[in-house]
Amino acid sequence: MIRFSTAGESHGEALIALVSGLPAGVPVSLDRLNHELWRRQQGYGRGGRMKIETDKAHILSGVRHGKTIGSPIAIEIINRDWANWEKKLPVETGDPALHQPVASPRPGHADLAGALKYNFPDARYILERSSARETTARVAAGAIAKELLRELNIHVLSHVTRVARVELDRNVAWEEIASLAEKDEVVLGCVDAATEARMKEEVEEAARTGDTVNGIFEVVVHGLPPGIGTHVNWDERLDARLAFAVMSIQAVKAVEIGRGVVAAGSFGSQVHDPILYSEDESMKPTRFHRHQNNAGGIEGGISNGEDVVVRGYLKPISTLRKPLESVRFDTRQATSASYERSDISVVPAAGVIGEAMVALIIAQQVQQKFGGDSLTELKRNYEGYLGQIRNF
Question: Which CATH number is 3-92+99-390 given?
Answer without folding.
Answer: 3.60.150.10
